[in-house]
Amino acid sequence: MTDQLQRFLFDDYQIRGEIANADHSFKEIIKNHDFSPEVAKIVGELLVATTLLTAMLKFEGKIAVQIQGDGPLKMAVINADQNLQVRGTARVEGDTTGLSFTQIVGKGNMMITITPDNGERYQGIVDLQEESLSACIENYFEQSEQLPTQVILHANSTQAAGILIQTLPATSENHEEDFQHVCALANTAKEEELYTLTAEDLLYRLYHQETVRLFDKQPITFKCSCSKERCLTSLASITPEEILEIIKERGAIEMHCEYCANDYRFEVSDLQILLGDEHNQQH
Ligand SMILES: [Zn+2]
């Protein structure tokens, strides 16, 4: 029972929650990279955090959560859509062995970009001044939506999982107490339990004294959106002269997808549409 996200709701409190775990999708993301265990942990946590944040997609669209800093981890990003199709990549320079989250990311920020299929793009930014990724995300909700939120994230080099507990916008009188109570119980979940238990079992283990409504499972799958067509679109931004220059030097245009490690190769015959008349003039 891995690679899925499940939302839940407390009947007696104005609180919602989500449980997510990633196994195959996480392995697909890291298999094309040579990440240290420390970096893999951050990428895994970022993956789970991004799936938990897809609840912000109230429409068809995409979400990207990116961290960038001046530490050895220059950049890490996870892309997801409303169907929980995910991909991700990271850029690391230097040794990260034994370093903490703060040491690995350094000073920087976390950027959440929401791109609806129809509508305007939204971007939120928060400083990476906390000691963990989960604290950065809690901070983001505190600042941007004033919604008390607790995020628990765990990852090693092969598995990643997490829980999100969040106040609903309309709250009752005893709300703060309720929220503390629910969070305190969530905090008793062990890393191993998050990796191995089903959402039903985990919720029973944490909240058997509460009435919790669990929604349908949503599968998390790895999917890269790169394609030959998308490569051609990006090649359209350079001039035919430049394209021909590169082909003259290297025999073809080669493009590499950082996310899935797919290689694309274009020869003159593949680029007729882009080269058009310019190319014919050369002959
Ligand atoms: Zn790709």
- Indicate the CATH architecture of the largest domain: 3-Layer(bab) Sandwich
Total of helices: 10
Q: Which homologous superfamily in CATH is the superfamily of the largest domain?
A: Hsp33 domain
Strand/helix succession? EEHHEEEHEEHEEHHHEEEHHEEH
Low-confidence regions: none
Q: Mind telling me the CATH class of the largest domain?
A: Alpha Beta
User: Whole-Å distance between the termini?
Assistant: 60 Å
> Helical content, roughly?
25-40%
Mean pLDDT: 92
Q: What hetero molecules are in the model?
A: zinc ion
Q: Estimate nothing, just give the exact number of structural domains.
A: 2
> What's the Cα radius of gyration?
22 Å
Largest sheet: 6 strands, antiparallel
- The name of the CATH topology of the largest domain is Hsp33 domain
How would you characterize this protein structure?
The protein has 283 residues and is α+β, with helices and mostly antiparallel strands. It contains 10 helices and 14 strands. The strands form 3 sheets. Strands 1, 2, 8, 9, 10 and 11 form a 6-stranded antiparallel beta sheet that branches. The N and C termini lie far apart (60 Å). The relative contact order is 0.17. Zinc ion binds at residues 224, 226, 257, 259-260, 262.
